[in-house]
Amino acid sequence: VQLQASGGGLVQAGDSLRLSCAASGRTALMGWFRQAPGREREFVAAIRRTYGNSKHYSDSVKGRFTISIDNAENTLYLQMNSLKPDDTAVYFCAARLSAIVLSAIRLENSYDYWGQGTLVTVSS
Description:
Blueprint: E1 3-6, E2 9-12, E3 17-23, E4 29-35, E5 42-48, E6 54-57, E7 65-70, E8 75-80, E9 89-96, E10 113-114, E11 118-123
Parallel strand pairs: 2-11
Antiparallel strand pairs: 1-3, 3-8, 4-5, 4-9, 5-6, 7-8, 9-10, 9-11
């Protein structure tokens, strides 16, 4: 599976941005992670395709970000609203081929494939 992320850019605080991740193959779980400068990569959101496309978010983005998937195009999206400077990071999409328990979806090593990352910069 190949993942191609896009949509990053420079925006101002309060603006919106939508990230896309095109996948080349069938997946059971897809997610977004981010890595800010000097910090470890962290979970942002995930969608479990084998569980009715159930959606899960980190507390830091819940209510502001929305993860979705276009099954026909096999493309994952992350709609980011009310962006804050703390959201500045490189955003990575990730995918797993098989189903996994809910408690594991926030772990990096639960994912088999990773995209190249797209930079989001939010100015104050």
